[in-house]
Amino acid sequence: MLTTITETKEKCRFDMFTRRKKESLPPVKNAKEVFTYRGDQYKKEPDKMLQHLISIVENYRKQFVVMMLCDHTKPKNSRDRIILKVLHGIPRINRLCDYPDLLKDYPLPEWLSYEIKD
């Protein structure tokens, strides 16, 4: 008798949904127009995971229609789950101020240094 064990991948604490402008160049090779960036390489280090995703926002925000950074420790239907939402390069929701412990060694640019709640 065969038994199969299915291992489920542990969900990253942070991920970022993006939709790239059709005319913009992809930031990574073979990137799709709609893509979710995950911080898998920093699974045990949520501070580096968050900082890595914020650096993508900093470097590529003008190439995307939407960038939405989510915290998976928050309940699925909670408004606080979305910690950063950038539409056409402009921040619309910014809860990064709620994560001082994870961003203590990461200087935020001025346009991300203030809080915006929906």
Explain this structure to me?
- The protein has 118 residues and is α+β, with helices and mostly antiparallel strands.
- It is built from 1 helix and 5 strands, in the order ββαβββ.
- Strand 4 and strand 5 form a beta hairpin.
- The longest helix is centred in the middle third of the chain and has 15 residues.
- The protein is globular and about 35 Å long.
- The mean pLDDT is 85.
SSE arrangement:
Blueprint: E1 14-20, E2 34-38, H1 46-60, E3 64-71, E4 82-87, E5 90-94
Antiparallel strand pairs: 1-2, 1-3, 3-4, 4-5
Strand content: 25-35%
Global shape: globular
* Low-pLDDT sequence parts: none
Helix content: 10-25%
Order of helices and strands: EEHEEE
Backbone structural class: alpha+beta
Q: Which descriptors would you attach to this protein?
A:
13% helix; 1 helix; 118 residues; 5 strands; alpha+beta; five-stranded antiparallel beta sheet; single chain
What's a quick, concise take on this entry?
The chain has one helix at 46-60; strands spanning 14-20, 34-38, 64-71, 82-87, 90-94.
